[in-house]
Amino acid sequence: MAPYEQFPNNKKIIFVGKMGTGKSSLTNMLVQGDLYTQNIREVSDSAASVTSEVKVVDGRNWTACDTVGLGEMQGKSNESADPAMRLLVRVLEEGQRGFHYIAYVIKQDRLQTKEHYELFELFKATFQGAEDNFILVVTHCPNPKWVTNNREIITQTFGNIPVVTCDFPFDADDISYRRQERLDSLPKFEAQLAALPRSPIVLKLSFKETATVVVQQKFTNSLEEFLRVGKSIVELVLSVLIPFLNVYSW
Predict the structure, then answer these.
(1) Are strands 98-99 and 201-202 parallel, antiparallel or unpaired?
(2) Strand order in the sheet with 11-17
(3) Sign of the C-alpha dihedral, residues 28, 34, 35, 38?
(4) CA-closest candidate to residue 168, choices 10, 14, 7, 43
(5) Which long-range contacts (CB under 8 A, 24 or more apart) does 72-81 make?
(6) CA angle (168 as vertex; 164, 169 as ends), nearest 5
(7) Are residues 171 and 140 in contact, defined by beta-carbon separation less than 8 angstroms?
(8) How far are the Cα atoms of 61, 129, 186, 191 from residue 165, in angstroms, in the given order?
(9) What is the spatial distance between Cα 206 and Cα 188, in angstroms, rounded to a whole number?
(10) H or E stretch including 227?
């Protein structure tokens, strides 16, 4: 496959997100144009297939970085909030590639989870300084109106970043199944990206600083929750005791 420098209109995108959200399928569709029995990046129609490495691949007019799913790797070090993100940072620092799009990927039916909020906080801290290139990619989403219908919770969880949708139906046992739908959906996906022109950003990341920011934020959130609950308990106790204090007061 030709190196990305040979494509004059080459766009570069990195996919980050949990296991089973479709990062590898997105990578294959952009660089190959379709999904096959043997792909550049292994894909599965279940969440059992786990990407265990970070790899940048080139094809068509795209350079795509497929990453280890957040939360997939169990680490023993306390330096990092997520070993998968630490691995990603190392690969990006070694490659020094610029990316037009830094995509956090979710699956349509997995939107309403607290875990997404926490992982996206880690995502933002890790890619601090590249916020202008952030996008949210929603996979397994054949109807773009889904974004409008779920705008409130999307904003609450991810803020006001651009949202791009796609649906690349795939059956590992029958790759021809709904193939035309896949082929039709690809240009629609690319058109949404083209409508969001971005200049490439070379990511300069430090995971130790990132981990510290995230840990501090989680501590702050926990403390605020503790104080809120504590205040409620105190108010409840006082509401019970005050009538007795009034009765027995001199």
Answers:
(1) antiparallel
(2) 55-59, 62-66, 11-17, 101-107, 134-139, 163-165
(3) negative
(4) 43
(5) 72/18, 72/19, 79/207, 79/208, 79/211, 80/207, 80/208, 80/211, 81/122, 81/210, 81/211, 81/214, 81/215
(6) 140
(7) no
(8) 20, 25, 10, 11
(9) 35
(10) helix 207-247
pTM for the model stands at 0.72
Residue with tokens 């990603």: 88
Check if the beta carbon of residue 19 is closer than 8 Å to that of residue 50. yes
The 10 Å Cβ neighbour count of residue 82 is 25
Per-residue pLDDT reduced to its tens digit, 17-36: 888 888 888 988 998 888 77
Amino acid present at 44: S
Alpha helices in 78-206 (DSSP H): 83-95, 114-126, 145-149, 151-158, 179-194
Return d(Cα 209, Cα 106) in angstroms, integer: 26
Residue corresponding to tokens 């999307």 = 154
How many CB atoms are located within 10 Å of the residue 3 CB?
9
pLDDT in tens, 78-114: 444 456 666 666 666 655 567 899 999 999 988 877 7
Helix, strand, coil % over all residues of the chain, rounded to 5: 45, 15, 40
Cα 222 to Cα 96: distance, rounded to the nearest angstrom: 36
Cα–Cα distance, 207 to 86 (Å, whole number): 6
